[in-house]
Amino acid sequence: MTEIASAPTPAHRPARRWDPVVKLTHWSVVIAVIANALFTEEGSGTHVWIGYALAAILVLRLLWGLIGPAEARFTAFPPSIGRALAHLRDIRSGRHVEHRSHNPLGALMVYAIWSCLGAVIASGIAMAGLPGQARNERSDTAVSASTEIERGEDADEGDEGGEEEGALGEIHEVAVNLLYLLIALHVAGVVFETRRSGREVVLAMLPGQR
């Protein structure tokens, strides 16, 4: 990844390039997270299907990190604690280093958000099942288990299933809350970087912008 030390003048700021797939996946994740946080009921069909869509979006972005253009690939923003600490020193000293992709702190945040999204999606699918038949089978199993418990049969197995669902629910909730925290930190970082560097970081992610 090319880095250019320079004074914070517009003439020395190379255009930030984000391709359409990066923009699409970024804003799709934003919309999906907001939709499930504010407009759907947890566990509802809409909530679950948005989760499936979020899984597909994340897979697409990770695949694009392997085959996409240079700025979108993982090699353009590898996670590195050392580089992140060096970037903090640059901020403290007022030194500006241009990055064609995410800066080192931003890179760590991206990987943290992706990991948290993965935990949210995995725990959600573990509770809801895969689309279609798998979800129906889980519902049938739950009904059968409830019937057996009502009859006094296999009560221990029913308790174990309830404990498993409860543990998955707790993991899902913790992962979601952590995701909200990471998103808040990400937004704060974008605002700070925009003010520090003078680059319109958000505008670069909008359609038609570079």
TrEMBL record:
Where is this chain's protein located in or outside the cell?
Cell membrane
What GO cellular component entries does it have?
Answer: plasma membrane
Broad class of where this protein is predominantly found: membrane
Q: Which SUPFAM superfamilies match?
A: Transmembrane di-heme cytochromes
* Molecular function as annotated in GO: electron transfer activity; heme binding
For this protein, the record's InterPro entries field holds: Cyt_b561_bac/Ni-Hgenase (IPR011577), Di-haem_cyt_TM (IPR016174), Hydrogenase_cytochrome (IPR051542)
Q: Write the record's keywords in alphabetical order, separated by commas.
A: Cell membrane, Membrane, Transmembrane, Transmembrane helix
Q: Which residues form the Cytochrome b561 bacterial/Ni-hydrogenase domain?
A: 17-208
- Residue ranges annotated as compositionally biased, kind Acidic residues, are 151-165
Listed GO biological process terms: respiratory electron transport chain
> Which stretches of sequence are listed as region Disordered?
136-165
Entries under Gene3D superfamilies matching the protein = Transmembrane di-heme cytochromes, Chain C
Domain of life of the native organism: Bacteria
Q: Where are the transmembrane segments?
A: 21-40, 46-64, 105-130, 174-192
- Bilayer topology term: Multi-pass membrane protein
> What is the official name of this protein in its record?
Cytochrome b
Q: Identify the species of origin.
A: Novosphingobium taihuense
Q: Output the lineage of the source organism.
A: Bacteria, Pseudomonadati, Pseudomonadota, Alphaproteobacteria, Sphingomonadales
